[in-house]
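Renewal narrative, Specific Aim 1. Our central claim is that a sequence can be written position by position from structural information alone. The example that follows is taken directly from our test logs and has not been curated for this report. It begins with the structure tokens describing the chain, in the order in which they were read.
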């Protein structure tokens, strides 16, 4: 998941920051562990829903780097340096790993164990296909939000070093935190795509963590980011239009 912070209009980006080998290795290791986890838990490789979900995850990962980088070349460095970033809110040191790493990993592992042991109830093929389509939609929404927002950091911090301001274009016209909306879609749809209702348990816990992080980040932005309170008055909903 990501820090869904904002700006009004495009501004001149600072020079592209360097992404070190350590940041690249960390990102690749996280991706490899996530991709391998369902197959290790299931004890088999011939599991087509998992391969379909892996393909969607890789496609979203590549798109979320290539497309935003064309508009905001310094964003990838900001996201890659999340562990070393200054000014990160203390509570986000706890919530970020839950939302971005532990939660998705738990969903994939539980689904793999479900596949291994055949826990009832079963999920129908049409529902699995719907789950895959929702995952794809969530990946597209997250990429769109990143392309619009050069302050889409991996952690919650006010990016004064990068000229942080408010955004209201693209998906930010509909909800204040579209990146988190995408995370909610993925947390609910990935268990269905993998054919595991049991994986909805960690998925829903992840949704709860996303909601808490959204509320805390929104409160931080209203208190510390100039113009955000007025933006919040125009765009009423944080995650789901018409709901919250």
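The sequence written for that structure reads:
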């Amino acid at each position: 998941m990501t820090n869904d912070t904002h700006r009004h209009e495009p501004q001149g980006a600072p020079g592209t920051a360097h992404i070190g080998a350590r940041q690249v290795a960390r990102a690749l290791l996280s991706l490899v562990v996530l991709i391998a986890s369902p197959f290790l838990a299931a004890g088999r490789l011939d599991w087509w829903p998992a391969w379909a979900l892996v393909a969607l995850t890789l496609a979203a990962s590549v798109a979320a780097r290539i497309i935003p980088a064309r508009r905001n070349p310094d964003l990838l460095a900001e996201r890659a340096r999340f562990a070393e970033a200054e000014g990160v809110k203390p509570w986000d040191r706890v919530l970020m790993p839950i939302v971005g790493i532990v939660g998705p990993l738990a969903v994939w592992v539980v689904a793999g164990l479900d596949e291994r042991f055949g826990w009832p109830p079963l999920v129908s093929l049409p529902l699995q296909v719907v789950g895959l389509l929702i995952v794809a939609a969530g990946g597209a929404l997250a990429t769109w939000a990143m392309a619009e927002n050069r302050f889409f950091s991996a952690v919650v911090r006010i990016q004064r070093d990068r000229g942080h301001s408010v955004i209201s274009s693209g998906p930010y016209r509909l909800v204040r935190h579209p990146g988190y909306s995408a995370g909610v879609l993925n947390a609910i749809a990935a268990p269905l795509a993998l054919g595991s209702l049991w994986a909805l348990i960690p998925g829903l816990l992840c949704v709860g963590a996303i909601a808490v992080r959204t509320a805390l980040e929104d409160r931080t932005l209203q208190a510390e980011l100039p113009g955000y309170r007025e933006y919040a008055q125009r765009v009423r909903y944080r995650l789901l239009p018409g709901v919250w």
